[in-house]
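Issue 218. Parser rejects a valid record. Input:
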Amino acid sequence: MSAGKHAVLPNERVVHLGALRDAVDARRELACGLIERRGVTWVSVVRVGGSGRLVEVGCDYVRAAWWFTWSDGRPIAPVRNVEGVVAVLVRELAGGR
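Output the parser choked on:
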């Protein structure tokens, strides 16, 4: 999490993750929850009726913008592309990126 000259407010992260949670909740094939671990908020996502495998999505301020990220920090997409991230999650939980 690097903000450079700009202050990064933790509540911005939660707002973006809440939008992702809402978009995932709108999909019948996915279920999710907003979780907090060691002071960091994540969206934990599973495929309904799937293998029980889950993925966790975070949100970090990278390259002067907010991005959704995998739990290991790899970027998925900018936060303005919520539907694109949901599509990536559907593919990931179906077995491949």
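Fixed in the parser; the record now loads. Residues 10-88 form one domain.
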